[in-house]
Amino acid sequence: MNVLRLETTSDPALLAPIRRAIEAFCESSGFSECAVCETGLCVNEALANIMRHAYAGAKNRPVLLEANFVEGLLQITLRDWGNGKDPSAAPPKIDPLTPGGLGLVCLRSMMDEMTYTPQPDGMVLTMKRRKK
Amino acid sequence: MDVKTASDLVPWARTEGQALIVGVKGEIDLHNSPELRTEVLDLIVKHPSLRVVMDLTLVPYMDSSACAVLVEALRRVRAGGGRVFLVGLQPRVKSLLEIARLGSIFVIAADEAAALAVK
Question: Is B101's CB within 8 Å of A45's CB?
Answer without folding.
Answer: no
